[in-house]
Amino acid sequence: MKICALLVLMGLGMSPSMEVRAGEAMAIFDGKTLDGWEGNTNNWRVEDGAIVAGRIERKQPHNEFLATKRQFGNFELRLQYKLEGTNGFVNGGVQFWSQRVPNDFEVSGYQADLGADTDGNLYDESRRNRNLVEAKKETREKALKPGGWNDYRIRAEGAHIQLWLNGEKTVDYTESDEAIPRHGIMALQIHGGAYTQVQYRNLILEELPADK
Fold first, then answer.
1. Tally of helices (H runs) and strands (E runs) in the chain
2. 3-state SS string over 83-123?
3. What distance in Å separates the CA atoms of residue 166 and residue 154, rounded to the nearest whole number?
4. pLDDT band at 16, cuts 50/70/90?
5. Which of 65, 99, 144, 176 is the most buried (most CB within 10 A)?
6. Cα–Cα distances in angstroms (integers) from residue 86 to residues 59, 187, 196, in the given order
7. pLDDT tens digits for 199-211?
């Protein structure tokens, strides 16, 4: 990723579209609107330059996802998240190479998990329904900033998936099932069942060259 471009984009929080070309870093959230995204806008909203869902004083009834309108192949994504809440499974996640489940509120695909002692895990949401890789407890405890802004870096290239939490690598995974799609939507999650609020900001994506 070109560092200069990354710094400029994070400073401006702007993007005219989601037309990302290989080798270029671009904000996929403009910091002001949900242009380029789709989901329940009675819950998902923009506040102070962040995408926000849920409210601390209200129980989130079920999982909800805000998804990109376009799909992505190989990529590297950097973002920040902040999760707060009590009384339940306080959790969220960043879906990638995913798709919406028809006639349901779920999204199926890979997830960079967060919250409820899952930060840094690679989970397979609504598909195999299990952790593909669990971050080491000592790595998570060293890296995580509970209740604060945390940096997530997600790199998916061919069968190879890597995650970093606040600069600490937590996942280095190679997918063995060739039938699993290596393209799809991105989506942000708020997990149901808790009094919780999740925020996401500074979503900067670099689209990587396609597999040869």
1. 2, 15
2. EEEECCCCCEEEEEEEEECCCCCCEEEEEEEECCCCCCCEE
3. 11
4. very low
5. 65
6. 9, 23, 6
7. 999 999 999 999 8
Name the residue with tokens 């579209």: 17
Cα distances (Å, whole numbers) of residue 50 to 33, 45, 207: 9, 8, 22
- Please tell me the distance from the alpha carbon of residue 56 to that of residue 53, in angstroms, as a whole number: 10
What's the burial of 85, exposed, middle or buried (CB within 10 Å: 0-12/13-18/19+)?
buried
Task: Give dist(CA 128, CA 110) in Å, integer.
Answer: 10
The domains of the chain, with CATH numbers, are 3-207 (2.60.120.560)
Do the Cβ atoms of 51 and 31 come closer than 8 Å?
Answer: no
- What letter represents residue 27's amino acid? A
H helices present in the chain, as ranges = 3-12, 137-143
> Which pair of structure tokens corresponds to residue 167?
């600069």
The helix/strand/coil state of 16 is coil
Distance, in Å, from the CA atom of 100 to the CA atom of 85, rounded to the nearest integer, reads 26
Q: Is the confidence at residue 182, as pLDDT, over 60?
A: yes
What are the φ and ψ backbone dihedral angles of 189, each rounded to 5 degrees? -115, 145
E-strand ranges in 115-184 read: 122-125, 130-133, 150-157, 160-165, 168-174
Alpha carbons 125 and 101: distance in angstroms, whole number: 11
C-alpha angle with apex 76: 26 to 89, nearest 5 degrees? 105
